[in-house]
Amino acid sequence: MPITVELQDMFSYSVWLTVGVTMLVILIGVVGLLVFLKMRNKKKVVERPVPVQEPLPQKTQLTGEQIKQKYCAMIDDLENQCHTGKLSNRKAYQKLSVILRRFVYELTGMKVHNFTLNEIERLNMPSVSSVIEECYAPEFSLDKDGSIYDTMNKTRMVIREWH
What pLDDT does residue 115 have? Predict the structure, then answer.
């Protein structure tokens, strides 16, 4: 009985081993690439500077009329800065909004400086929300221009007629 043995090619038994090792190398490469990209993106995160906020007015022993005079004087100062060209309309609207919000805070204790327009409207302060709304478009848009002097006068009226 003749027995014959056929020899196999040297790499024929390792095809699956080669495919497996190749897949493993590719998987390690993809994972390494993803980790690299993620780390690179973390380095590119730019921290935005925290805007400097002026401190809120302290609760004082001023009367309502004295507080009104104080904030009307702030608006007068703002108006002078606009007349002399020290402030752009946009900055003036921003400062006017802050002045009105601080006025309400100082009289009521409500932190409206943190409120959105919708939240202010829900407080049932129509005169305040109306002036804040007038400030929004010129305050947040570069191409919008309002009548800053009219808005200043309306703000003075809101302050003077506050009860």
Answer: 84
Nearest CA to 111 out of 62, 155, 53 is that of 53
Q: How far apart are CA 80 and CA 72, in angstroms?
A: 12
Q: Name the CA dihedral angle for 141, 147, 120, 103, rounded to a multiple of 10 degrees.
A: 120
pTM for the full predicted model: 0.60
- The DSSP-derived string for 73-119 is HHHHHHHHHHHTTSS-HHHHHHHHHHHHHHHHHHHH---GGG--HHH
How many Å apart are CA 68 and CA 86, to the nearest integer? 25
Q: Residue 120 contacts by C-beta under 8 Å, 6 or more apart in sequence?
A: 112, 128, 129, 132
Distance of CA 74 to the CA centre of its chain: 26
pLDDT digits (tens, 9 = 90+) for 137-160: 766 665 556 688 888 899 899 888
